[in-house]
Amino acid sequence: MSSQAQGLLCQYLSEDMSGINLGTLDLPEIEKDLVKIKISHASLNFPDWLMSQGKYQRKPELPFFLGMEGSGIIESIGPDAKELQIGDEVMFGGWGHGAMANYIVLPASKITKKPSALNMAEAAAFATAYTTAYVSLIRRGEMKPDDVVLIHGSSGGVGMAAVQLAKMFGNRVIATGTSDEKLQIVKSWGADHVLNTLKDGITAFREEVKDLTDGKGADVIYDPVGGDVFDESIRCINWNGRLLIVGFTSGRLPSLPVNIALIKGFSVIGVRAGEYGIRDPEKGAETKKIIHELAETGNLKPHICREFNLTDAKDALVYLSERKLVGKVVIKNNL
Description:
Rossmann fold
């Protein structure tokens, strides 16, 4: 007989979050390589909010628990899950759903032992941010040491991970955002320069980037924002630069005047970190291994600005939608 889990349940798609409430779902039987995890923490990501509205590229079958990633302790295990044991502290997810609950059942292949240098909250918030940053900057952006890297949305979870990674690989980082207070936190996280992109209500940063780069512009631009930020970015990118399209949190899909790309000789590169691993499983597994090893060193840790209880997880979504977070928000299982 199947057991049940409780969690933040999306029962129907809605823009006002009316379709989201605490609820229950049946869990699969623990057989073959399936593993049952008692969840400690889940991490909140921008796609969670989009998924609840049906606006994300992955559309789970309704109803579903929100939460792309989390951490916890293995409670039971199928006979084919050879490398895991009951009691193991693990992290999981990154591109699915179901982490904002008290239990989850997953294939062993989706589970990784928790790096010893991370606590449970940090482990829950690690995989998506750092995998996205690594695939963006290293795999797709081919970032080289001493590149000038312009990171937009730098106060978000993935933005702060990108800042940390770029500095670890020896790059000069210009980080942007729209809040001076948040940017000071990013500066303390390692950014060489921080720029507020809003000037009297207008997005403007191209001249500042050019001044900081002796008129050349940035070599790699990480853009999860789109809209006006994209429009400015193509005007302060270096010859042979790489503009990484990671998302559109501004809500506007920009267009590229191809004559500018022709004249400046830069590339516009789409990044879907989850899809990258699916399309190239070997590179995906290699990336996962590298990120895990970097976490084990203790040199990479997410910045967690706030923790909500699972029973208040809907409030965390509101907090996210109001753009209040810096770094990551985590959800603690209190059920």
